Design the sequence.
């Protein structure tokens, strides 16, 4: 049975802040398809995207562009097409979505990781591509040619260096304040590297949009499986958009109060309410075209600190 209040909320959200189709496909792949092995028939994907107002033509254009960009590969079986996350893109998917579902518990040990590219160490094209990826990964520009982060992930950094073919060409070091030397506190570099006001505004907008939905679902918890899937997908998509601009700083270096904490709790509560019914819809959709479509992997239930199985 459809919840009419949910129907109205979904319609209002899609009208006021419609997601871009290519970005929404990325969200649904990461949220719903990767936990099932990362492959889906195009017909099933068309069916999943229909409630968002994404038509067949727009979807085909989106997956074609994602394939061109190296995220997806396509296979044909007669007249049918399937799309799969490419192996080299899977690790990037997993790291990006780990940021979404993991609790905000990164603590600061007082150090920074610096990536230093002296003049002439790499070409202009390499430097531009590396800058884009480091900024996307949350690094701040300390000064020309020097990027830093106070809670760097070594595995993710190595992947960036390897994919951009600059391994061994840059200096990467771990630095702390030097005792007995007059110095500005390293924590002050946060203000030099990032303007967190836009990130805070993004979290506040997310809270304003989704807090009424949580209240609605708590008051009227009956909804059908497709509604649950649409809500879970819009929730994940909106939260992901804010997270992509969040440098993921340690909690000790964040302003107080930090709206990301409330936003995470809100996303967690909504996801826990909708995930099971959403899974019913996803599985039913996939198995209409492929009776052997798998269930989610066990690690799926670790999201947001643990989901009911």
Sequence:
């Amino acid at each position: 049975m459809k919840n009419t209040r949910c129907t109205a909320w979904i319609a209002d959200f899609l009208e006021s802040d419609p997601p871009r189709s290519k970005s929404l496909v990325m969200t649904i792949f990461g949220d719903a398809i990767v936990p099932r092995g990362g492959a889906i028939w195009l017909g099933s994907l068309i069916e999943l995207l229909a409630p968002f107002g994404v038509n067949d033509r727009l979807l085909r254009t989106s997956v074609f562009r994602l394939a061109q960009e190296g995220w997806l590969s396509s296979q044909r079986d007669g007249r049918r097409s399937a799309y799969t996350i490419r192996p080299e893109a899977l690790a990037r998917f997993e790291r990006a979505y780990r940021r979404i579902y993991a609790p905000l518990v990164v603590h600061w040990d007082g150090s920074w990781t610096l990536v230093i590219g002296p003049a002439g160490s790499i070409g202009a094209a390499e430097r531009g591509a590396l800058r884009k990826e480091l900024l996307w990964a949350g690094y701040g520009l300390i000064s020309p040619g020097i990027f830093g982060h106070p809670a760097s992930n070594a595995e993710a950094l190595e992947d960036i260096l390897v994919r951009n073919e600059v391994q061994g060409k840059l200096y990467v070091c771990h630095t702390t304040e030097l005792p007995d030397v007059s110095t500005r506190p390293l924590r002050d570099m946060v203000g030099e590297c990032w303007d967190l006001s836009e990130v805070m505004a993004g979290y506040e907008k997310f809270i304003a949009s989704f807090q009424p939905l949580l209240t609605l679902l708590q008051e009227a918890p009956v909804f059908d499986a497709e509604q649950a899937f649409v809500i879970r997908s819009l929730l994940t998509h909106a939260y992901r958009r804010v997270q992509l601009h969040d440098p993921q700083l340690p909690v000790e270096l964040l302003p107080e109060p930090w709206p990301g904490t409330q936003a995470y709790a809100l996303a967690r509560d909504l996801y826990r309410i909708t995930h099971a019914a959403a899974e019913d819809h996803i599985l039913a959709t996939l198995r209409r075209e492929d009776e052997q479509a798998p269930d989610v992997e066990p690690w799926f239930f670790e999201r947001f600190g643990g989901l009911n199985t």
